[in-house]
Amino acid sequence: MAPPRKRSVQNRNLPENLYPNGKYWRYRNPITGVITSINKSQTEAIKLAMAANAKLAPLMADDGALLSLLTGEKAPTFDHLLGRFEEEWLPTRGYSERTLQEIRFKLAKYRHDLGPRMIGQLDVLAVAEYLDQFSNNAYTKHRGLMVQVFAFAVAKGLAERNVAELTLVKLEEEKKRQRHTKEGLDKIIAFEGTPNWLRRAIRLALVSLQRREDIVTWEKSAADLEKNTIRVSPGKTQNYDNPIHLEIVMGEALRAVVKECLASPVVCPFLIHYSPKARKREQLDAKRHWNAVTEDYLTKAFAKARDDSKAYDSMPKAERPTFHEIRALGAWLYEQQGYPQEYIQALMGHADVKMTEHYQAGHEEKGVQYQRVGADLKL
Q1: Which range of residues forms the domain containing residue 86?
Q2: pLDDT class for 69, splitting at 50, 70, 90?
Q3: Same domain for 115 and 65?
C-alpha cells in the first residue's frame, strides 16, 4: 500500500483520514474513499476516527487481500485501471507513436506514485493534491490525462464518478520565451559542462530545422553518406491529409554532425543518444531504447546547460529560450545567409498548397514520396 499523503500544517495533529468540515468534521474511508460527515465535537470526532482507523488497519496492511477474503471481491487498484486504460482505450484513439510514447511515460509515473492504491482511495482531494505537484502547464496536461483515465474507469464500472474532472481547471500560462542568439547558443555548445550528445543535438536542430520530437527519434538508418542525404518524416505532419516526408541533401555542417552521431560508440539506433548513469525500470519502459533520449530529458538537459553556462543570465529565468527555440534561430540564420523563404519553409516541413501540389504532380500513389530539400547552413 502506498504511504498516506502528507498532512497539512492545519491537520497535522489530527488522526489519519480525518479532516475539518466547517464547524464539524469528515472521515474518508481509506479503503473505499467514501467520505462521511461527523457532526460532533473535535474530541468525539478524533475518537471515532481513531477507532475506524484501528478497525481498517488490517485491511490496509495487505493491499486489499484480506478485504477480498472477507467480501469475495478484490478491490481494484489504480495500477489495474491504468493497465486496462492502456490496453483497451489508447489503441482506439489513433494517436501517433510519438504521442503514445508521451502518454505511456506519464502512465508509468502514475503507476510508480499511485499504482498500489485502490481506486476508491483516489477521491477528488487525493487527485487534486497529486496534481498540485506540477507546474501550471504540466498541471494542465496531467489533469487532462487523469480526466481521460477516470472517464474510462466510470465507463467500465470501476469508479462511480470522474473525480479528476472535479479538480481545479487552470489556464496554461502564456509563453514569454525570448529568442536565441547565435552568441548565446555558441556559449552553451562551448561550455565544458555541456554533454557531447547535447552538443550534437543542438547543432543537428540548428542546421536541419527539425523539431525536438524529430531530433530525438531520428534514426541512424535515415542517413546515407554515399548519397549525402538524410531522410525524415516530421512527426507533427503525419496526421495531415498529405503527410510530409523530406530527403535532405546535407551541407557541410549537417554532414559533419551526422557523421559524429554515427561514429559514437554508444549502442543505439537513434542519432541522438547517451549512456545513462542509472536505468530505472519505469524509465526504461517509457523509452524507445535504453540509450535513447526522451523529449523531456532533452529539454531538461538543455535548460541545465543553458543556465550553468550563463549564456542568458541577463534574462529572467522564465523567459530564457528553450531547445524548441533553436529551430527559429536556425531559420533566421538561413534567411540572413540569403536562402529564399521557400527553401526554409520546405526544410521546416511547412508545406503550403502550391508546394504540396508541385511535389505531388505526376506522382501515382506508390507509398511514401520524399520531397528533396537542402540544408546547407554555414556555421
Answers
A1: 78-166
A2: very low
A3: no
- 133 CB neighbour count, 10 Å cutoff: 10
Are 231 and 246 spatial neighbours (Cβ–Cβ below 8 Å)? Answer: yes
Dist. CA 35–CA 29, nearest whole Å: 6
Q: Are residues 214 and 83 in the same domain?
A: no
Query: How many separate domains does the chain show?
Result: 3
Q: In this structure, are residues 223 and 271 in contact, taking their beta carbons and an 8 Å threshold?
A: yes
Q: What is the pLDDT of residue 255?
A: 96
- Give me Rg for the CA atoms of the chain: 26
Q: What is the pLDDT of residues 262-287, one digit of tens each?
A: 999 999 999 999 998 876 666 666 67
Shared domain for 334 and 230, answered yes or no, is yes
Coil, strand, or helix at residue 248? strand
Q: How far apart are CA 330 and CA 84, in angstroms?
A: 43
Return the residue matching grid coordinates 480526466. Answer: 147
The candidate with the shortest Cα–Cα distance to 127, out of 162, 90, 82, 76, is: 162
Using CA atoms, how far apart are residues 13 and 33, in angstroms rounded to an integer? Answer: 21
Residue 87 lies in a domain: yes
Question: In whole angstroms, what is the distance from residue 142 CA to residue 195 CA?
Answer: 30
The per-residue pLDDT for range 8-62, each reduced to its tens digit, is 555 667 888 888 888 889 888 776 667 888 998 889 999 998 888 877 765 555 5
pTM attached to this predicted model: 0.54
Cα of 32 vs its chain's centroid, Å: 31
CB 179 within 8 A of CB 322: no
Tell me the C-alpha distance between 7 and 33, whole Å. 17
DSSP 38: E
Residues 6 or more apart in contact with residue 293 via CB below 8 angstroms: 197, 201, 216, 270, 272, 273, 274, 301
